[in-house]
Amino acid sequence: MKTSTIVAATVGVLTVATIGYAIYFDAKRRNDPEFRRKLKKERKRAQKLALEEAKKLSNRSAQTVEEALASIKDEDFPTSMEEREKFCMEQLSAGEALFTRGPQNYAQAAICFYKALKVYPAPAELVMVYQKTIPSEVFTLVMGMLSKDVQSKQEKYYTVFPPEDMNVKVDEKPEGVTADGQKVTRRGLVVTKAFTAGQAIYSEVPVINSLEPSLEGSFCHYCLKEIVQESAVPCSKCSQVVFCSQDCKDAASQEFHNILCTKNSEDADSPERSLYEYTKTTRNLVPEMLAKFLVKMVHEESMNSGAEYNSFDHMERLRYLEIPPSDEEEKEMELLKVALGSNIPGIDEFITAERYLLMKGRLLYNLYGISTSLDTDRTIKYLPERQRSIRDAPITGSGLYRVSSYLMHSCEPNTKIVFSDHDHKLTIVATRDIQAGDELFVGYIKNGKLSTEQRRLELFTKYRLQCMCPLCETTD
Ligand SMILES: C[S@@+](CC[C@H](N)C(=O)[O-])C[C@H]1O[C@@H](n2cnc3c(N)ncnc32)[C@H](O)[C@@H]1O
């Protein structure tokens, strides 16, 4: 990986972490426009600086960085907020004491500053402080350690994801070459053990999902299960959403609803209601799903669960179709910023048009339609077909799934998707015997009675996909 790529990734991680910081550490800055402007300017400077510093890293420094990281590789970092704060202060003063004793202590000082960065909730800001206050040699070493960290996190991802108990791994396969001779690879899922027809291979719940708006009230706002009226648990702050159980209500509140709840605000244009009203009237779930995604990401950051990869890490690796900017996205972006603005300071800077289009592209390209226990003669207008769905039952919502996003399409798939608990939990079931090491395929579209030509057209229109499955390869 090129140094510039590593540094760009580092800065990306810093920006994301900053959002997490803002929500739980520093309430007084929330409404200060001057502070926001300053932050934006400083972040740009941090990016530039990181790039310059990485270029300066000489071979000798690179070795020092490796050694420094190796010396602390098994160290644990504190998890509670208080412990982190204390640890951070200790490292900062130790680092300062060390570098004032001279260049022979620079590497040790850099380790302290690096450790402080690892627990400090707003690393981008701390980097700016370092840049102004510590010797440039020490600063270069700290940035080098940070870049290495990000690089190894990137490289390790597919060795720890998907978790072993899901019985699949992501495999990279050649997919031809581009016109200028660049190798193209694609990723798919292969099984780590054999399965017989009818066996479940794995199950997963989505990172985020949304319910078809016209079903709000009769289906759970969190898990999309049909609500049994006796056990319905409505939101205590708004009369818009209902949950099928207290567990779903608690999970939703923690992950996103505490921020996205309309709180029964009277004003349809209020920050609380504007996104809700838009979703209900347009039935376009994208901004709501992205709002949930971002709030969940912040929630994960503030929980500091120790998980190595958060929802953002999972999403940023997914393939996408580029979406050209239009008025629709402008509107969606504005709604998102308004809905999250007062709760997530820094969101204005984070949601650039480029990042929004990327997130939307990733979301739409990887969504699956969810169909639960809805009976087919119920009169709802179905969601626009913007997601992979081969279900015969009507779609009750959409979900983004971490692992299943990697499944390739085949017109003769060896698995099928089942929502066996009638909620958002997706299970992949073998439809024939599968050997260990075989790749898994689902149908992105209903094959049924379609001709090869019709299938090709549908797959291309929806996914820009020229199907390479055996059925398509052997028929003209
Ligand atoms: C949602 S992604 C699936 C994961 C993807 N294979 C990856 O590399 O990350 C959809 C993309 O997978 C590839 N793909 C899936 N099924 C395919 C098929 N039957 N034939 C050719 N390409 C396919 C296409 O490149 C498509 O754009």
From TrEMBL:
GO terms for molecular function: mitochondrion targeting sequence binding; protein transmembrane transporter activity; zinc ion binding. PROSITE patterns: SET, ZF_MYND_1. The keyword tRNA-binding does not apply. InterPro entries: MAS20 (IPR002056), SET_dom (IPR001214), SET_dom_sf (IPR046341), Tom20_dom_sf (IPR023392), Znf_MYND (IPR002893). Coiled coil: none annotated. Its main location: mitochondrion. Keywords: Membrane, Metal-binding, Mitochondrion, Mitochondrion outer membrane, Protein transport, Receptor, Transmembrane, Transmembrane helix, Transport, Zinc, Zinc-finger. Belongs to the Tom20 family. This is MAS20 protein import receptor-domain-containing protein. It comes from Lobosporangium transversale.
